[in-house]
From TrEMBL:
Residues 9-57, 68-113, 116-163 form the LysM domain. It comes from Paenisporosarcina antarctica. InterPro entries: Gmad2_Ig-like_dom, LysM, LysM_dom_sf. GO terms for molecular function: lytic endotransglycosylase activity. Transmembrane segments: none annotated. CDD domains: LysM. This is LysM peptidoglycan-binding domain-containing protein.
Length: 269
């Protein structure tokens, strides 16, 4: 599972918008928008868009790497945005530290969302993507609500879809992406709001074998702030299956029980 390796924007078409005006505003190009959203025959007339449609706009103006920004449109709230991308309100606010008042967001404001963009390959279906990534079909459909040319039943090669990242209320895993293949030494990273900044992780293969036993990462900030964390994971044994889970979590200070568990489906090389 490979993400589109550029910053992408999710833009809701407004009255009088054109592909040219959208591309100019967000640092993209008309051909890039047409390709990402299949705005060409047989899906639609070339470049035809309607108010209310959600477009993926490949660009590079606000962020870097694989980040996805939702561009606020009239009627949006942080709660509605978080729900569309299967994230928690607290998490969305935490990864957008520039927002001083969660009840006050404005039109055309870029909001970082817990998602990545994937280009459909030959043979893909929502079921196949769910099997590879562990992302529920209903969450993918919800993330792509109002998308131009999107059909849950038929996915055409070259079309770009929005996929939610693995997260809980207090933890977001940015790397590896769901469905990625990892090996000993691979990078894991994300953001977390945790007591004393200690983020726990382990890796288990699908046979239940612990490939990387529980260890901790120290995030750059402790709760109540969200802090970035990263480490290069080391395997203690070879996996016995081709796939497994990366588990990122915390433990209760009272009884040691696992809390805020985030599971990322992964493959092994």
């Amino acid at each position: 599972m490979t993400a589109i390796q550029t910053t992408n924007y999710l833009y809701t078409v407004q009255p009088r918008d054109t592909l040219y005006s959208i591309a100019s505003r967000l640092g993209s190009t008309v051909p890039a928008i047409e390709q990402a959203n299949s705005l060409y025959p047989p899906f639609t007339d070339p470049g035809l868009i309607f108010p209310g449609q959600l477009l993926i706009v490949p660009g590079g103006r606000y962020g870097y790497r694989y980040e996805v920004y939702y561009i606020v449109s009239p009627g949006d709230t942080l709660l509605s945005i978080s729900q569309q991308f299967s994230g928690e309100f607290d998490l969305l606010l935490g990864i957008n530290s520039q927002i001083a008042n969660p009840n006050l967001i404005y039109r055309n404001q870029p909001i970082l969302v817990p998602a990545f963009i994937y280009e459909i390959q030959s043979g893909d279906s929502l079921y196949r993507i769910a099997s590879q990534t562990g992302i529920r079909i209903e969450d993918t459909i919800k993330a792509n609500d109002r998308r131009a040319s999107f059909s849950p039943d038929i996915l055409y090669p070259g079309y770009h879809i929005i996929l939610p990242l693995a997260s809980s209320r207090n933890i977001l895993v940015n790397r590896p992406l769901p469905g990625n293949t990892i090996q000993s030494g691979s990078l894991i990273e994300g953001v977390a709001r945790v007591f004393e900044a200690n983020v726990l992780y382990s890796i288990v293969d699908d046979a239940g074998n612990v490939i990387s036993p529980e260890d901790f990462i120290t995030a750059r900030a402790a709760g109540p702030e969200y802090g970035y964390f990263s480490t290069n994971v080391e395997f203690d044994r070879e996996p016995t299956t081709s796939t497994g889970d990366l588990r990122v979590y915390t433990r209760s200070a009272n009884d040691g029980s696992v809390q805020d568990l985030v599971r990322v489906k992964i493959g092994f090389t």
